[in-house]
Amino acid sequence: xxxxxxxxxxxxxxxxxxxxxxxxxxxxxxxxxxxxxxxxxxxxxxxxxxxxxxxxxxxxxxxxxxxxxxxxxxxxxxxxxxxxxxxxxxxxxxxxxxxxxxxxxxxxxxxxxxxxxxxxxxxxxxxxxxxxxxxxxxxxxxxxxxxxxxxxxxxxxxxxxxxxxxxxxxxxxxxxxxxxxxxxxxxxxxxxxxxxxxxxxxxxxxxxxxxxxxxxxxxxxxxxxxxxxxxxxxxxxxxxxxxxxxxxxxxxxxxxxxxxxxxxxxxxxxxxxxxxxxxxxxxxxxxxxxxxxxxxxxxxxxxxxxxxxxxx
Length: 312
What we know:
This protein is mainly alpha-helical. It has helices at 9-16, 20-28, 48-61, 66-73, 79-110, 114-124, 128-143, 151-158, 169-182, 185-204, 214-228, 238-252, 258-271, 274-287, 296-307, and strands at residues 36-37, 43-44. A hairpin with a 5-residue loop joins strand 1 (36-37) and strand 2.
């Protein structure tokens, strides 16, 4: 082919690999208009038609619609503008597909009912603002109206999920489960009780408040006992219990007696809620954090140790 020769649709088909029907369709749409017609009325095309058809095929493979393709080949809009717009559209589609995949994966794992699947789908599709409002409502229920210390702001931020723009399937699954958990009335009640205990201990701890959370003392003192295989009801556990109670009592300015032990027992049993542990695990997945330390074993050990030492 050279620049002065005109070619039939059949010639273009052989040159481009497109069918005669496809070229005729693009010609009828005005995307590849004929340069002239033969004496018999057949369409004839110049060499530039080959380049236009190659571009059309590439743009169609990329998913562009015909009106947009026509504007590109006619230079009414630039190719970079079209590419940027369609790249963003594809990004939206990819996020949508990931959400759908995550929901279907969760449904398959859980054996969910149609009603549960519908709820999961709705939760997965929430916008960032909608997600924040949903979690904000949960956190307000847990912490709102309490005589909050400055630490509460940090605690609430640390319990807020931040879904990335392009989440992995496991992050979407974790978000759906966390959102469902945050709406559970029993879980909300337990979290409110944990917050209430924290505020009460801070208030009784004097102007400096609780210098060390009871959970940290239990973790540090009980961990070695667990490793050593000490039975929580045995005499060998007495020094461990005494060490934790001494730290707790010192902060509150109270002696280690039955009332103090009952007080700490109540707090640990509330904090040992499996829902709280699961919330923190899901939060770590969503936010891309390291998996949180599982305190359930040390809490279980110390709760049993307290029960064995509290009359009645």
